[in-house]
């Protein structure tokens, strides 16, 4: 959505907005931080931009429902993600010499309009959790047979040590021997 800020630039004091933004389905996009996440409904965005003697400040709340998989047991996880955001709003010509790092702190007006959608998608990618758990104490999957350990123990022999950990086991045994000699 492009917000028309020309009335604010001409001296109006408040612009309120409330709309929905369709989100891409990231469930198949392995190049995104949101890989494996689905959004069953549009993101809800509401907020306002206030103009106080030429200083414009945007405050907004964005919320969206999500569907993902538990990072340990791969069970479906769903919920709602909400983010409050505040940014200073300024025309591009006033920000001419700022570094790219500093430009992220601003919502930039181009030709009297503020393009909200791309900024909100970027903010979602930066702030969205990287992984989800079905519950805090999720036991995950058995590394041998793949059984969901939240549903009960499996019949695998878990006393066998992963061969990749053998050098560490030897080092720990050596350290214990040295400790016992003291």
**Overall pLDDT level:** 86
Major β-sheet annotation? 5 strands, mixed
Beta fraction = 25-35%
Radius of gyration: 25 Å
Q: Uncertain segments of ≥5 residues (pLDDT<50)?
A: none
Coarse shape: elongated
Q: Strand arrangement, largest sheet?
A: 2-3-4-5-6
Number of DSSP helices?
Answer: 4
Helix content: 10-25%
List the secondary-structure elements in sequence, H or E.
Answer: EHEEEEHEEHH
Topology, number of strands: 7
What class do helices, strands and sheet pairing give?
Answer: alpha+beta
The rounded distance between the terminal residues' Cα atoms is 71 Å
Question: What labels would you give this structure?
Answer:
182 residues, alpha+beta, five-stranded mixed beta sheet, two-stranded antiparallel ribbon, 4 helices, 32% strand
């Amino acid at each position: 959505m492009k917000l028309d800020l020309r009335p604010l630039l001409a001296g109006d004091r408040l612009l309120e907005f409330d709309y929905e933004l369709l989100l891409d389905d990231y469930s198949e996009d392995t190049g995104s931080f949101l890989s494996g996440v689905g959004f069953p409904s549009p993101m809800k965005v509401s907020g306002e931009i206030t103009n106080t003697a030429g200083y414009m400040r945007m405050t907004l709340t964005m919320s969206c429902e999500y569907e993902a998989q538990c990072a340990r047991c791969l069970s479906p996880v769903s919920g709602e993600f909400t983010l409050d955001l505040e940014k200073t709003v300024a025309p591009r010509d006033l920000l001419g010499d700022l570094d790219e790092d500093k430009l992220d702190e601003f919502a930039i007006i181009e030709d009297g309009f503020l393009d909200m959608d791309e900024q909100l998608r970027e903010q979602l990618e930066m702030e969205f959790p990287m992984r989800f758990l079905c519950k805090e104490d999720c036991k995950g999957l058995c590394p041998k047979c793949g059984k969901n350990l939240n549903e009960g123990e499996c019949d695998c022999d878990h006393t066998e040590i992963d061969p990749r950990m053998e050098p560490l086991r030897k080092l720990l045994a050596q350290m214990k021997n040295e400790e016992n000699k003291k």
